[in-house]
Amino acid sequence: MNNTKDITIKDVVYMAKIKNRTIDKNKIIRAYEYAVKMHKDQKRKSGEPYIIHPLNVAYILAGLGLDTTTICAALLHDVVEDTEATYEDIKERFGEDTATLVEGVTKLSKLFKTVEEAQAENYKKMFIAMEKDIRVIILKLADRLHNVRTLQYLRRDRQIAISKETIELYAPIAHKLGMYDMKMKLQDGAFKYLYPEDYGKVKKELEQSLNKNKILLEKTKDRIMSELKRQRIVANVKIESKHLFNIYRKMKDENINMGEIKDLFAIKIITKGKAECYRILGILNTIYSIIPGTFRDYIALPRNNMYQAIHEILLGENGVMFETKICSYTMNKIDKYGITNYFSYMMYGKAKKTENMFENNLSGIKDSLELEDLIENPKGFLETLKNEILDDEVYVFTPTGDIKVLPKGSTAIDFAYGVHQEIGDHIKRCIINSIPMPFITKLKNGDIVEIEVGKRETNFQEEWLKDVKTAKAKTRMVKLLNKNKQKEKEEKTFEILAKDRRNLVLEITNTFTKNKINIESLEADVNDEKARIRLTVKERTKIDLKQIIEILQEIEDVKKVRLEE
Fold this sequence. Notes:
Blueprint lengths: L8 H11 L5 H15 L12 H12 L4 H9 L2 H4 L4 H8 L1 H10 L9 H18 L2 H15 L6 H21 L3 H15 L1 H35 L4 E7 L2 H11 L10 E7 L2 H14 L1 E2 L5 E2 L12 E6 L5 E8 H9 L5 H5 L4 H10 L1 H13 L2 H12 L3 E5 L5 E5 L4 H8 L1 H5 L1 E6 L2 E3 L11 E5 L17 H20 E9 L4 H11 L4 E9 L2 E9 L6 H9 L4 E6 L2
Parallel strand pairs: 2-6
Antiparallel strand pairs: 1-2, 3-5, 4-5, 5-6, 7-8, 9-10, 9-11, 12-14, 12-15, 13-14
Helix pairs in contact: 1-3, 2-4, 3-4, 3-9, 4-7, 6-7, 7-8, 7-9, 8-19, 9-10, 9-11, 10-11, 11-12, 12-13, 18-19, 18-22
């Protein structure tokens, strides 16, 4: 069933039953029948009946082991947006949970001034719904995957827009949720239409390289399997190649050709448990040479999305270079399906730690929404949102050895706010690898960052906002900058030039006291019997500040009084 239009409701129910025993077959069929009725004679751009799309989305979710409610929502996800059906209709027929999921992925119908504004508002709506129910975003990912698979029927400008959005937004979200398989399908599917010439070239070169190295890779695989069998270690060994979009991105980022990519091919070894993983690592390092600097232990130090495996690049038979990935069966399943592995437990509150971990992983989205409410700048919001969900990360450490994972390009300010809001609000000094550095220093993998705090809130500079990456840091900085601006508005500073004499300052301060104006600060500079006095006061609407100037000018020896704007 490679052709998406071949999917039927029987296929959906069959797949759902295989993956999840608690599925309510009758409810799914009722949802399908209602969707067919509401979409009636509607067609897709391909000319196919519209119901083909929700069927395929439901099938994708069934394959992930999602529950009855989510599969029903998949079948119904376009009826509110594209037919006369309403939220209340769905709620009455299929329950509030299903109706809420459908509502969460339904685009806003009102008109917007710009494309960016429309995107921003629809993202906000979807992400707010996601905070209440994570299934909203999983449904949207499945919806996007099928849409990407059928892009050939759209105009070229729509192909480009949807593909770009998929790579910049939806694939990174899948990564944050640990759904590696979904991420790769979204990226490669979108790559095909975003850069068709590059896609064809990379695909052709990869096939040629695989054919060229196939015999040596198979020989390497056979030797590994033979050695594992001799050591009585049960494992599944398979050859994999790097995904097309990852190859393209690596070639672009590092300005290299495909032949220079060290991890173009991988031999994945899946075994029983953690102990076996480390035994296999020892065996591989005994029979093959490791490329220096390529060892990564994600079992000891899992990624934020719970990915675990041991990586290293080795020289195999006759010098063929390959990456090895060693993991357990459980780790492999988590790598492929991510958060959906825990979904049945999360629904019944049995995996709260896991749920909290994924919520923390997506906390940047919530911070981005708060930032948009402050800046009311759709373009700025979209840029910050994309920074938050990028799968490019930097790993840095606190002085006590705790690790912090931040978006690539993050600064010491981002780090401070990543530790705690109060630390970010009161940064006094930043020390990176034992050297004092500016607050906006960009961090690198392995940096040890120490933040010294003071009693006063940090006096941030507005231009630093363009250097800061995380929405949390930007949000707090904007709030503090706004607070300082408001404070400045509420204060007025007088500059007084006078001939210096005894009790001059006392007379001036008494003038303010008589008029019930409290002095916030006072600076006096005397040079050659000329006094320059600056006073800052809280502005009070009931006092005529110009009148105060006139009163001050009447004081003996005062030459000039100016109110600073």
